[in-house]
Amino acid sequence: MALTPADKQRRYRERQSAPRESEPDVIERALLQDAERAERGELSAAECFALADKLAELANRHLWRSHKLAEMARKIRPPGLPP
């Protein structure tokens, strides 16, 4: 069965939006919005625990990445210059 132009357009939009949903900024923004909802009391206790785990994991990934970047900066810094 041939796809209609509307079906083709819908599939194209889905393919285009999929990578954006996995970008770190998009994920972080969604988690922060959920945290605001939790502060307002809109989430159940189980949802709050799950969100807290996701936020802690995100914080650990940021910390790990910052350590790696700082290590790279130390390696490329010329000797004798102040830090």
Could you walk me through the main structural features you see in this protein, from its secondary elements to its overall organization?
By secondary structure, the protein is mainly alpha-helical. It has a domain at 25-76. The protein has 3 helices and no strands. It has helices at residues 5-21, 24-39, 45-76. Helix 2 (24-39) packs across helix 3. The protein is flat and about 70 Å long.
Principal-axis shape equals flat
- Classify the helix fraction into a percent range: over 70%
Largest sheet: none
Radius of gyration: 21 Å
Low-confidence stretches: none
Q: N-to-C SSE series?
A: HHH
Residues in β-strands, percent: under 5%
Which descriptors apply to this entry?
83 residues, mainly alpha, 3 helices, flat
Please summarize what this structure is:
About 80% of the residues lie in helices and about 0% in strands. The protein has three helices and no strands. The model has no long low-confidence stretch (mean pLDDT about 85).
